[in-house]
Design goal:
5-stranded antiparallel sheet, about 35% helix, alpha+beta, about 130 residues, globular
Length: about 130
């Protein structure tokens, strides 16, 4: 897989505005905006991994300085469910923390989250792998 990026990061746009155009309900606090902009040029990659557990989808939001596929391989070793890389974009660990906070209502454990329509929207804005 090539080093594709979240396309708006290349343009220097706030990825939250790009991922959720016109969605005023999905807004981080104003003090988070500089971190989001910094995250577009971050030190690694923010990835979203998904897996099916019974009839429910689970998603891991993580940060890595390695390739997302390498990280997926590492995670798969310790998980009995088949995992799939949903997508990734360049970003810092600060952005990862902001996403964890944004989706905390659907937090399951660690970096794992349940289904959320806004998370689905984010996943669908990521480049095809």
């Amino acid at each position: 897989m090539g080093d594709e990026v979240f396309p708006h990061a290349r343009e220097g746009l706030d990825w939250a505005d790009a991922a959720f155009p016109g969605d005023q309900a999905w807004r981080l606090e104003p003090w988070d905006q500089p971190l989001l902009k910094q995250g577009c040029r971050g030190d690694g990659r923010i990835y979203i991994v998904g897996c099916e557990v019974g009839d429910e989808s689970r998603y891991k939001i993580g940060h890595t300085t390695k390739s997302p596929q390498t990280r997926l391989s590492q995670l798969q070793v310790g998980n009995p469910f088949e995992m799939e890389m949903m997508g990734w974009f360049y970003g810092s660990s600060h952005v990862e923390s902001l996403l964890h906070r944004e989706f905390r209502a659907h937090h399951i454990r660690g970096e794992w989250f349940g289904e959320d329509p806004r998370l689905s929207t984010l996943i669908h804005t990521l480049p095809d792998l």
